[in-house]
Amino acid sequence: MAMMAARSPRLVPALALAALALAGPGCMPVCDEQGLHIAVERLATRDPQQRQPGLDALGRACPNLPASLTYALRDPSGPVDPREAILPDRTEDLPWSELLARTCPRTDAERDRALAAEDRDLATRKSCSIDRYGLLAPEDTFVSEDVPVFMLYEWMTAGRVDRALARDVVWPLLSASASVEELETRCLVERVGCARAMQTWGLQPPRSSSDRILDTGTEIRITSDRLSVEHVPLLTLHAGRPTPDAFVDHVAPALRDTLVVHAERARRSARNEGVDPSARILLLADHATPVGTLFDTLLTAARAGLREAQLVVLFGRDEPRALPLTVPRARLSPELDPDHDLDSELDGTEQPLELTFIVRRDGVEARAHGMSPPNVFPNRPSCEPPPGGCHDLEAIASFAKQLKALFPHETVATFRTDDGVPLQALVSIIDAVRGGESCRLLPMMLGEEAPPECLFYQAVLDAELPPLAEDDAPP
After folding, report:
1. Strands (E) located in 386-426
2. Model pTM score
């Protein structure tokens, strides 16, 4: 016993090292504490420019962070839907599957995907028992896209990271901590958390079959009582229409001067980042907005140098998408004949179709080069006009399909609309002329040719209705 006691001072360090080696990294926190504090410092700023550096710092602090989780937490920087990284079928990704099973042991991904966004969020919160983590109060917002953040918290705390420090890391990444402005940006750019964001908009966007992903741009918001640019109120509206002196020849000087500044700022930023310098607007308008307000806004923006416009629409299960709109190029030069639409000019000797739909509240009239008399589509009978109107969309779609068969290379349709037509009615007609749900614009965004189901998918918006056709004029 005395001999063993004499050896013990030399054996203790060796035994301790052996025990540590056998235990492996599981006895040590999976993340470096100092590195986590650096990540927290950057993420807590809530500055979008600091999100990715904060996630990079997190990756350095936690070198064994599962790669799939790193991907799911990334800052989206392109037209990739983040939902593809949430609750995916990753049967071959064992670390992800095990971590997801611990975080959401009773989730039903297939069932949840079939639900509307808000219902899906509630179902996921319940099935995953999200509240057991103690990160959210009952009234706090949760969206399904927050699941990877809870997976990160599960991974860190299971890896012996201090719970308070782990909470400091994940809290800035949760939707519950986002401001209204941040939620709106995430909704429009990342298509995340839109159920809560739309409650703050004070408007309901029109529904559409357009599946085009939204790009970034200067936001113009039109509610029933105001027009705002980047959340700054600019014009007072009454039932969606401005005061008579706000617009002169369809242009609002105050709006134009404000947008000139935004256009130059967008081009300067694009040049600094080495990307496409095109400047555009994102138009967020209520579905009942009079189309006259929409056209006046589009033309003012175009005159200010923001010639690309995307109307925010709701696609599928209330997912925000873009409906591209332009005004005739002739409108940009007042000295040109405003009835001469340069958008439909073609090279060569072939006469362009110059397809134009005259949209009134009581019907639609289609005109094209060589078409006489015009095609007239009366409204559907026995219809109480909702914001979507009573226009005969089936007849309009059938006409567009027949015309496309005769002019397969034509893609442009101009819509000259009565000022009082509700925005939803116009969008529904544009959808019908484009090809409805059969026409998918997403492949064209990826450089592919237009699918054959797409008819006249380039929409040009104009105003100032021509006189009624003789056959349509009242006696």
Report:
1. 412-417
2. 0.69
